[in-house]
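quick one before i forget lol
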Amino acid sequence: MSEQRIYNVLFLCTGNSARSIFGEVLTNHWGLGRFRGYSAGSHVCGHAAAEACPVWPGQPMSAHWGIPDPAAAEGNNTQRMLAFREAFRALENRIKIFVNLPLRSLDKVRLQQKLDEIGQAAAQSVENG
């Protein structure tokens, strides 16, 4: 019996305070041992406005799944809590789609297209609010 490959997934956001941590936890949960999630921040400040994404060596696949930073949400406690819930829900939906992709049957080009489509559909749903 061959060993099943485990895919490592890094979620990177500006401050590693919410979105990337949600991504890590949700990937570890929904990935069912096939995916291992990790989180990191590109900057150690709480200002996510620039949304800088670093370049790293090697040949990892990457995709931008823009989600508003709930740590930057303003308003009363209820409004801020709703911002965190919305970010969590949005990431959970995307991660469920991602971990169910038929990775073994997709070449790198098609997989990159699928990753981008997940992010584009997400952006459209935010715009259509």
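fyi Residues 6 and 34 are 5 Å apart (CA to CA).
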